[in-house]
Design a protein that fits this description.
Structural class: alpha/beta
CATH topology: Rossmann fold
CATH class: Alpha Beta
Distance between the termini: 24 Å
Radius of gyration: 17 Å
Number of strands: 8
Mean pLDDT: 93
Low-confidence stretches: none
Order of helices and strands: HEEEHEHEHEHHHHHEHEHH
Length: 285
């Protein structure tokens, strides 16, 4: 395959356990070790496109998907918008892969999705896990969330379109330490506006501590965190590190909540380091 072929995005759909169509996007080398990327609150698989079209595609199968109620995936009834149902979306995508045991990269609210999946049993985990600026403790732990999240939370849950759009735009502006490129900002706002209020409210109702679920996994774990993150504060991952000895934490100066956009080389290096640990853990050369 040519380099252009490897970075060509391929879209498909899978069915969640309760029958919803879940949109999946992939690039890279079919049959190669898989990296599966989980997006955050009110975003979509599109937030990962710079990664899927980047250097990692030359060595791996790269996969992203839209959670229910996001992007091009179907929207559920309110009772099926969060919790174990999100775990089912992740499960459906993992089960669809020809390459078993992907390395899962969970960003922001993706940490909740991963936590819900791991609650089903630590034996279900992939080859390794990377949590990037991820939420691992629920909403009552206010001291672990930064001003960008706290100042906009009410607006992000509003059923008034104007209020929601203003909060979404302000939230996204606060996600990066330096100004987000305007095209990325506008695309991200558009993705947020697609997510209905019942889904948004269900997501932000979660109030669990997923540390035990992560600690129960006998696979390499890594965390990537921007020091200037004002959505999920660095103390979130510091707390995780005090409870999971084998967690390898990388902190990035001058980086906010979206490390692969703000420091792509450092993000790719963290992923490659985790791939190496996973190979050694499984006895591969």
């Amino acid at each position: 395959m040519t380099e252009a072929d490897l970075t060509q995005l391929r879209t498909s759909f899978v069915r969640s356990p309760d029958g919803l169509r879940i949109a999946v996007e992939e690039s890279g080398v079919p049959g190669a070790p898989a990296l599966l990327f989980v997006h955050g609150f009110a975003q979509s698989r599109r937030i990962w496109r710079s990664v899927l079209s980047g250097p990692l595609a030359k060595e791996h199968l790269l996969v992203s998907f839209d959670l229910r109620g996001h992007g091009d995936s179907e929207t559920p009834a309110e009772a099926r918008a969060a919790g174990e149902w999100l775990a089912g979306d992740l499960e459906a995508v993992i089960d669809s892969l020809a390459t078993p045991r992907p390395i899962v990269v969970a960003w922001s609210y993706g940490g909740v999705v991963l936590g819900e999946y791991l609650k089903r049993g630590p034996e279900r985990v992939g080859a390794a896990l990377l949590v990037a600026a991820a939420v691992t403790v629920g909403r009552r732990a206010r001291e672990l969330f930064g001003p960008t999240m706290l100042a906009n939370a009410r607006g992000l849950l509003s059923d008034d379109a104007t209020t929601y759009e203003a909060a979404a735009r302000e939230f996204l502006r606060g996600c990066t330490a330096s100004p987000m490129p305007s095209d990325v900002l506008e695309a991200s706002v558009s993705e947020m506006l697609r997510v209905p209020v019942n889904v948004r409210r269900a997501l932000l109702s979660r109030d669990e501590d997923y540390t035990p679920a992560l600690a129960g996994c006998a696979v390499p774990l890594a965390a990537l965190q921007g020091r200037q993150d004002s959505v999920v504060l660095p103390r979130m991952v510091e707390r995780l590190g005090t409870q999971i000895d084998r967690l390898v934490i990388t902190t990035l100066d001058g980086v906010g909540h979206v490390p692969w956009l703000e420091s792509p080389a450092a993000f790719e290096a963290s992923v490659r380091a985790l791939v190496t640990r996973a190979r050694l853990d499984h006895g591969s050369p």
